[in-house]
Amino acid sequence: MLLCAQALPVFGQEEWLERARAFLTQQASGLGDDVEVTLYPPGAHFPECRQPEPFLPASSRPPLGRLSVGVKCGETDRRTRYLQAEVVVIGRYLETATALEAGERLTLAHLAERRGELHRLPHGTLRAPQAAIGQVTRRPLAAGRPLLSHQLRAPRLVDRGDRVTLEARGDGFRVTRKGEALAPGGRGERIRVRLEDRRILEARIVGPGRLVVDN
């Protein structure tokens, strides 16, 4: 009687398919406003499954579009079942509201928010205005197109040939040196700097004409 009381529940195909659907819905819920999951069961009938545990095969991609989902069965049944699914997420993304020239610094007026199926958008499509405002276009962009992260760069805080200040910090000390920037760059970018003694160091831009030498 004790063994019967502790036995794991058995799920039929419809029940563990529904568990897989709920798992994918939960995984995609933070990606947009609306989530729709379609499962494509295999042609053959899957046997019953004890304690089904859905999972996604290792991937760095968000769970969008056509994908595979696995279901592990617990206790003595160690088999793993796989099935195809499609996850459609409707969410907001950014488009260019106007045509843009190379080197333009983006403001809210340059952006338009749209809603659509996220898995159909190009990789790197920006979804929040704060990710684009203040950035600079790398090349001309047409109006009405999804705005992509690689099309933008941080505004330049240092130009090649600028006189810059380098700062190095450690436990109980802070040292500053003057130098010449050997390349342009924006906040967070690393460039080479020639010091007054002709040595060349690599440093990270933290402000206009200011760089930090990371330990």
From TrEMBL:
GO BP terms, alphabetized: bacterial-type flagellum assembly
InterPro entries noted in UniProt: Flagellar_FlgA (IPR039246), FlgA_N (IPR041231), SAF (IPR013974), SAF_FlgA (IPR017585)
Any one GO CC term of the record: periplasmic space
Pfam families listed in its UniProt record: ChapFlgA, ChapFlgA_N
Keyword Signal listed: yes
PANTHER family xref list: FLAGELLA BASAL BODY P-RING FORMATION PROTEIN FLGA (PTHR36307:SF1)
Name this protein carries in UniProt: Flagella basal body P-ring formation protein FlgA
Originating organism: Halomonas beimenensis
